[in-house]
């Protein structure tokens, strides 16, 4: 049985947009993804000196900002430390534990203690993975519980991180071919996973959720993928504008990814509604 | 062992919402919070249309997704299958609410009243522990525990039975022990065709919908 999609304000049987998580929850995925991606790419890029310190601290700041956003959403924020109690099954608790390790590791890396930059990067990858699993474990929301959401969130988090790394290119000056190549590969990978994810939602998610995702997806594909790829290709030829081109490309990739996650949480979070497997048989049998 | 479960006979439910009112009365839930709701569903195309009233709420799942995601262990499942929330542990993150496929959970940030001011009954039923945390149907666990402690039988003796079941005017709602083959719910499930909501998700709801007699049963 299917029902027309009427969107907000209903309480069944039709699916409706969940109202429990809003921009504050989305902020956690945006900040966490961008920050962890930035920490990972800072380690991978091999950037050193004051630039590495600044990028690592910026990455931690993004993660911290995301966690602050989600703290704003808590009904009982003074009990926030209880979030650590159930790492056995809850990805939110695992995310909290990972962040508790990530901050000291990131600060140690920024302080230049040998080996910690890779440790922080590994924790950042796991933090990002925790976030992806966290959202995907929300079984009540068809667009979130789709397993391909995991690679999509990981890919877009990494891409946003590289994007911010490139936004800071005028500061650190790193626009080497391997960096641009990695950026291009991540953009394409995010694009491919998005297409696969979207295809899997056909006939599963509510029409309202699909419409919201399609709008954000168009932005992700054109402004967040195609344009950055063209700009990056242009930058690969060098020249005085190269550093500006990659900075703009990075900003577009990061902003499109962030907007996608905002829409995913606040507009594509339609629940499943209710459906009868069988209608009651009363009176004369048909 | 005991596995408490509820059945709703869709052929009997008339959508009177007495269960909803009785739940709200028994549990003093604020306006907008209905731990037991009754949906009004139309199916089919004119002229072949069927209407069904469908009681919904927490399904007290065998494998509750709300419990798995809860970061604080506030949501737990008792040995008898009842899924509970510890209001002192819950941080109000609402992760359970988005994990529940049955939209059974509520979070009320501040006291809400039916009228502008708090009425006497609202003052009496007020429970600030339930503010800004997740709440949901408990199968009236306090009644069950208090009743069984006195030797009463849930689903049979009103004193030990959830308020919504007691109030049901058509006996569409029934409550009992699935592990007892002689219980009312076991008998009803044996005699009637039934399904559970969103069974494909693998949550194993403890709430069964009866919709037809089984073949061969008159």
Quick summary:
The complex is a heterodimer of chains A (286) and B (218). By secondary structure, chain A is mainly α.
Structure commentary:
The complex is a heterodimer of chains A (286) and B (218). Chain A has helices at residues 23-45, 49-73, 91-110, 116-136, 142-145, 149-167, 169-172, 177-201, 207-236, 242-266. Chain A is mostly helical. Chain A has a single domain (23-266), classed as Formate dehydrogenase/DMSO reductase fold (Up-down Bundle), CATH 1.20.1630. Residues 1-10 of chain A have low confidence and may be disordered. In chain A, helix 1 (23-45) packs antiparallel against helix 2 (49-73), helix 1 (23-45) runs antiparallel to helix 4 and helix 3 (91-110) packs antiparallel against helix 4. Chain B has a single domain (4-213), classed as Alpha-Beta Plaits (2-Layer Sandwich). Chain B is built from seven helices and ten strands. Chain B has helices at 18-27, 65-69, 95-99, 120-125, 141-149, 163-167, 184-191; strands spanning 4-9, 36-45, 48-57, 75-77, 83-85, 106-107, 134-135, 173-177, 192-195, 207-213. The interface between A and B is large, with 46 and 52 residues.
Oligomer: heterodimer
Q: Helix proportion of residues of chain B, in percent?
A: 10-25%
Q: Fraction of residues of chain A in helices?
A: 55-70%
Figure out the total of helices of chain A: 10
Task: Say how many strands of chain B there are.
Answer: 10
CATH architecture of chain B: 2-Layer Sandwich
Number of helices of chain B: 7
Distance from N terminus to C terminus of chain A (CA atoms, Å) equals 18 Å
What is the number of domains of chain A?
Answer: 1
Could you spell the SSE succession of chain A in H and E letters?
HHHHHHHHHH
The count of β-strands of chain A is 0
Strand content of chain A: under 5%
- Biggest sheet features of chain B: 4 strands, mixed
CATH fold-level name of chain A? Formate dehydrogenase/DMSO reductase fold
